[in-house]
């Protein structure tokens, strides 16, 4: 019997029975809390926005500390993601906070591919977690989860509408991360303009099909406050680490010649609302949504690309072992097919090479025969020429001998005549 059938029968046959006394498993929530507190928590925030919108300042204000970081310039050749991890402690709760900022976002003339490094970074964190999950020996309880839990998208306070860069980037990210849009430096536009700007942003997001994170309303304890806060999105925020004395209290504020803007005054900005929703109320839901929605979507697509599936063609349950065996057999079949193709290709190439070699050998033999015949003809010509030269040399020698003989006879005849004349003179 399959394990799924057994589990189904157990579920169907489950019945409720009363307890005669205290057992103690009501302490499980306390055990879970104590274990979670001892292990600590992690939370990863991605800040997306143009340079100079106050991303670093807002992070310092949110967590009431001063994070170390180098100020970004407008001269970056491309978008770079800078990640910094910090260990924070509040009461007895430890938090490993990772802040990822987009350096150089929106600073290029051609902004067409500005979203790609962000998408690649998010996918890289999902892939790292998936690889850890697929290991034979997993250490997920000590693994540093670097998946992005919340994306704070900083919108420039233009007061008009969203830039095309913002719409394209949020559309590419909405299926991979929880997007919380915020209007940065909201003290630079008037209250009436801000209200119209929020309505315009919400309308453009809906018309372009951009899915932003909605605070959950299924939990009765937070349903009312989350429902109210959903209506305030996007949050108009102000960040400041400067403390100003207002009345008898020191408060975070920004001072201007015309007055003071208090960061934590809800009549001035939505900073308190953002902090409540992001940290104090929905931090765990953001972590859960990242794991159960965005990571599961990435994991499912990745495993489907690898050939894994839950059901067979008849929509019947398909176990991982069966999927592995089917994939293995498919792989072995493809391997044998490729091996046969390679063997046939090798045989074909060998035959072609043999034909080429035979043709080359034939050409060489023909060339050799031509050269041999040419050599014989040249040799015969040389022999004939040599014979002709020898005949000429012999004839020359004969003529030379005859000439020498005539010359010697002539010299003898001349000598006798001289002697005769000499005798005649004496007489």
Automatic annotation (TrEMBL):
Domain Septin-type G: 39-305
Job of this protein: Filament-forming cytoskeletal GTPase.
Keyword terms, alphabetized: Cell projection, Coiled coil, Cytoplasm, Cytoskeleton, GTP-binding, Nucleotide-binding
Entry protein name: Septin
Region (Disordered): 402-427
One Pfam short name: Septin
Molecular function in Gene Ontology: GTP binding
Assembly: Septins polymerize into heterooligomeric protein complexes that form filaments.
Originating organism: Prolemur simus (Greater bamboo lemur)
Start-end of Low complexity biased regions: 407-417
């Amino acid at each position: 019997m399959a394990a799924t059938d057994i589990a189904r029968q157990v579920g169907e046959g489950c019945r409720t029975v009363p307890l005669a006394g205290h057992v103690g498993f009501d302490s499980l929530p306390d055990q879970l809390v104590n274990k979670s507190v001892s292990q600590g928590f992690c939370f990863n925030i991605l800040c997306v926005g143009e340079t100079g919108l106050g991303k670093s300042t807002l992070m310092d204000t949110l967590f009431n500390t001063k994070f170390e970081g180098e100020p970004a310039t407008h001269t970056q050749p491309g978008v770079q993601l800078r990640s910094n991890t910090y260990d924070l402690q509040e009461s007895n709760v430890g938090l490993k906070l990772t802040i990822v900022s987009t350096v150089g976002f929106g600073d290029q003339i051609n902004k067409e591919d500005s979203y790609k490094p962000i998408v690649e970074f998010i996918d890289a964190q999902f892939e790292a977690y998936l690889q850890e999950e697929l290991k034979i020996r997993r250490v997920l309880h000590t693994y540093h989860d670097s998946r992005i839990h919340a994306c704070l998208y900083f919108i420039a306070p233009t007061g008009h509408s969203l830039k095309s860069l913002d719409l394209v980037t949020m559309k590419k990210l909405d299926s991979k991360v929880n997007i919380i849009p915020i209007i940065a430096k909201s003290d630079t536009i008037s209250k009436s303009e801000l209200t119209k700007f929020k309505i315009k942003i919400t309308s453009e997001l809906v018309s372009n099909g951009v899915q932003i994170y909605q605070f959950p309303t299924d939990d009765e304890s937070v349903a009312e406050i989350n429902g109210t806060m959903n209506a305030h999105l996007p949050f108009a925020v102000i960040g400041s680490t400067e403390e100003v004395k207002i009345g008898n209290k020191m408060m975070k504020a920004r001072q201007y010649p015309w007055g003071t803007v208090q960061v934590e005054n809800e009549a001035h900005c939505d900073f308190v609302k953002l902090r409540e929703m992001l940290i104090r109320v929905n931090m765990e839901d953001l972590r859960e949504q990242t794991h159960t929605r965005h990571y599961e979507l990435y994991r499912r697509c990745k495993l489907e690309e690898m050939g894994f599936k839950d059901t067979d063609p008849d929509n019947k349950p398909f176990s991982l072992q069966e999927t592995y065996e089917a994939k293995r057999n498919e792989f072995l079949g493809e391997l044998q097919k490729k091996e046969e193709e390679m063997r046939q290709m090798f045989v074909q190439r060998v035959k072609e090479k043999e034909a080429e070699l035979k043709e080359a050998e034939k050409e060489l033999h023909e060339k050799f025969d031509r050269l041999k015949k040419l050599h014989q003809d040249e040799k015969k010509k040389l022999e004939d020429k040599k014979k002709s030269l020898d005949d000429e040399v012999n004839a020359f020698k004969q003529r030379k001998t005859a000439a020498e003989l005539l010359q010697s006879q002539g010299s003898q005849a001349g000598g006798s005549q001289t002697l005769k004349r000499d005798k005649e003179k004496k007489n």
